[in-house]
Design goal:
The protein is α/β, with parallel strands linked by helices. The chain is 46% helix and 19% strand.
Amino acid sequence: MTQANVQADTTPELDLAFGLEDDLDPALVQQAGAWADPFLAEQHWQERLQSWLGQLEAELPTALRAPAYSLGLEISGDAAIAELNQVWRHKPGATDVLAFAAQDDAPPMPAGVRDGDGAEPLELGDIVISLETAARQARDQGQPLERELLFLASHGLLHLLGWDHPDQASLERMLERQERLLA
């Protein structure tokens, strides 16, 4: 078996539910490139998130290791994410990314068990990214919007997988891991 086949065999399957808010600013959608393109974005996100899950597999607790995962990713505007932020976190205003983890504790076993048609995916939860906030942050940091979107998605994914940053040291470890995913 070649190295390429080994890598392909270890990459988990991903069932991605992707959504793009209908009334986003067309200029921002265009600036985001393929990551917010109504026809291309789902495939781009599918490939990237699947790759990240494969890279993170060895670091995951046993309960979160599965041959297949399921998660949702929504690209929204400030109004929609502000509403979610208020309802779920009791914080006013828009934020850049929210992650709603489905696995608070170890999932009921067996997780991600293969059935006759493939793997039953382990539900991770949902990530919501505000395109408007991401665009402002990208501009403030002097980086492309595409990179900011990937940075926020990696942050959300790590949260779905149990990472948190209650203190500065934890935040630094999480940010460093995000950078390695983006490399």
